[in-house]
């Protein structure tokens, strides 16, 4: 099965946001990955509801929203109303993770949990059956263009084993430093969804670059 490709809109040209989204509509991208940063959970600020709603007006593909924020439970319903199809919260930001997952599902959105590079996937044992997606951060969250962390390969294998052992339907998403060189091995280890930001939007031909990622083989 070919991977799900989710270009990160954070790396797009915000002065030409509509045309960037329309380009993704024409491409083989499956989802639009939307990074929300609050300057507290991560040392950066991205954008909030108005920009997300503007993206939604033009997007013809599902919006995969990654909340890198503290107290995400306060905003779940608003992100769903702004167009989120999948909402991922960070395990490190949730005191009551199971409750937050159920809150996401209650909105009708798919529920995901994001895991920082230093966090063990074993901490997902008690919620893996409730998840639609696990986002493994393969860089430290907060900034695009970082170098891929190679321990991610081991974490994918461990997470895949956990998913199989618990008969979970969760997809494995890898976010950070993804490119044509490491995509085949990521997929071989068990990844299902590839997030790519700068690699796509800085390419001379983003549509072809997306197609190349889409055609990566396990």
Automatic annotation (TrEMBL):
Q: Do you know which InterPro entries this protein is assigned to?
A: Aldolase_TIM (IPR013785), Ribul_P_3_epim (IPR026019), Ribul_P_3_epim-like (IPR000056), RibuloseP-bd_barrel (IPR011060)
- For substrate, which residues are the binding ones? 8, 66, 142-145, 175-177
Signal peptide span per the entry?
Answer: none
The EC number of this protein is: 5.1.3.1
Recorded catalytic reaction(s): these are: D-ribulose 5-phosphate = D-xylulose 5-phosphate
Q: Is-annotated flag, keyword Manganese?
A: yes
Cofactor(s) the record lists: Zn(2+); Mn(2+); a divalent metal cation; Co(2+)
Q: Give me the comment on cofactor binding.
A: Binds 1 divalent metal cation per subunit.
**GO BP annotations listed:** pentose catabolic process; pentose-phosphate shunt
Keywords per UniProt: Carbohydrate metabolism, Cobalt, Isomerase, Manganese, Metal-binding, Zinc
Listed pathway(s): Carbohydrate degradation
Q: Provide the binding site for a divalent metal cation.
A: 33, 35, 66, 175
What domain of life is recorded for the organism?
Answer: Bacteria
Work out whether the entry's keyword set contains Manganese. yes
GO CC annotations, alphabetized: cytoplasm
Q: Which Pfam families does the protein's record reference?
A: Ribul_P_3_epim
Record-annotated active site: 35 (proton acceptor), 175 (proton donor)
Q: Mind telling me which SUPFAM superfamilies this protein's record contains?
A: Ribulose-phoshate binding barrel
Sample GO molecular function, one term? D-ribulose-phosphate 3-epimerase activity
Its family remark reads: Belongs to the ribulose-phosphate 3-epimerase family.
Q: Write out the function statement from the record.
A: Catalyzes the reversible epimerization of D-ribulose 5-phosphate to D-xylulose 5-phosphate.
Designated name of the protein: Ribulose-phosphate 3-epimerase
Gene behind the chain: rpe
